[in-house]
Design brief:
The chain is mainly α. It contains ten helices and no strands.
Length: about 170
């Protein structure tokens, strides 16, 4: 059997360990028991289970993924390159925020892109926080984007207040 065939077979077998639904916490324990690096081929699949932080599987999956730390970088890059903004926000908040500066710097190109995105479920502010916290990029550039976002959100809050005033009672 060729290496790529073995890898595909291994991934297929390991995918059987993944949760069958959002309540399948036992599956996360089985994955944890296999440990890293044995479950490396399904880490991106496992990251999908932390998308919704209210799911019972999310917390134990997140805790296991956190033990892997920056070795998750290739999979985190895939998440940050996706169009799934809520997923990006969770990964930045729950995974990347715990990494050392050097490892966060390795994601800087994607963090800069996310930081300038307007509709990102908060991933933009998380990216700006990581850039500032780890001294990545020009502080004036970061401050400029924060000011732009503050003004934008103040306008939105003003619109919300105006609509609330329109409501009876």
């Amino acid at each position: 059997m060729r290496i790529d065939q073995r890898e595909r077979f291994l991934r297929k077998e390991l995918r059987k360990l993944l949760p069958i639904d959002k309540d399948d916490v036992a599956a996360i324990e089985a994955i944890r028991a296999h440990g890293y690096p044995a479950v490396q081929p399904i880490l991106l699949d496992l990251l999908k289970w932390i998308r919704d932080e209210s799911w019972p599987v999310a917390k134990p999956a997140r805790e296991f993924l956190a033990t892997i730390g920056p070795r998750l970088a290739p999979h985190v890059r895939e998440v940050l390159g996706s169009r799934d903004d809520p997923w990006k926000a969770v990964v930045l908040r729950q995974i990347v925020s715990e990494w050392p500066s050097d490892d966060v710097r390795g994601l800087s190109d994607q963090l800069f892109l996310i930081a300038t995105h307007g509709q990102s479920w908060g991933a933009d502010l998380l990216a700006l926080r990581l850039l500032a916290q780890h001294g990545i990029g020009d502080p004036e550039w970061i401050a400029g984007w924060l000011e732009f976002k503050r003004e934008h959100h103040e306008k939105r809050l003003s619109e919300i207040a105006e609509i609330v005033r329109m409501l009876p009672g």
